[in-house]
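Listing S7. Sequence submitted for prediction.
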Amino acid sequence: MQSYTIGQAARLLGVSPDTARRWADAGRVATHRDESGRRLVDGRDLAAFSVEVAQAGPGEEEVPYTSARNAFPGIVTAVKLGDVAAQVEIQAGPHRLVSLLTREAVEELGLEVGMQATARVKSTSVHIDRA
């Protein structure tokens, strides 16, 4: 049977390795040690636990599941609301990201200037310019 390291289990569960370690320490998922002392989770145990975690739903600190891998955590620097649409600007390090979305989405998320937010980018077309 395949076993997974805590780091591999964390990636499969969509959580940080620290969270996976805390769950193992609390006995929520069984682990054992290999010959080099690494903690491992049996595949069957991990599969059952992943179903349990999914059924429990996301906690307050957990990152939502998403297929968008380009995440830019930053701070909201501008929110422009129209009747139906809205424009939100996020400064993520040296990157300024601008998103056009519905006014309803901005209101549901409670977005306002000064709060932390993450811009996630998924594109079917990426253009690269040569310097």
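Caption to Listing S7: primary sequence and predicted structure tokens for the chain studied. Residues 43-56 form the longest helix (14 residues). Helices lie at 6-13, 17-25, 43-56, 103-109.
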